[in-house]
Design goal:
85 residues, Immunoglobulin-like, two-stranded antiparallel ribbon, 5-stranded antiparallel β-sheet, alpha+beta
Length: 85
């Protein structure tokens, strides 16, 4: 299953925008994480342990952005390379 309201930004960043007032008010969104990769919170690098469709908590400061850059590589995202991908 894949949700129609998320997209890859480059090869490593998955973005799921807040699309409704309900999502904004409840501070959560539904997000689909492919099971064949490891995914991490963009803001704190914590690994997201659940795969498939999950409920993801958000705030005004932490919208639905996650990445799949391995912690072994420092979990650092080079946005310049993502933009040129």
């Amino acid at each position: 299953m894949m949700l129609n309201n998320e997209y890859l930004f480059g090869e490593n960043i998955l973005v799921r925008p807040v699309l409704s007032r309900k999502e904004d008010k409840e501070n959560k969104i539904n997000l689909y994480l492919p099971e064949d990769e490891r995914w991490y919170n963009f803001y704190n690098n914590e690994e997201l342990l659940f795969k498939g469709e999950i409920e993801y908590l958000i705030s005004k400061e932490t919208i639905g952005v996650i990445h799949n850059v391995a912690k072994e590589n420092g979990g650092e995202i080079n946005l310049d390379s993502e933009l040129s991908a």
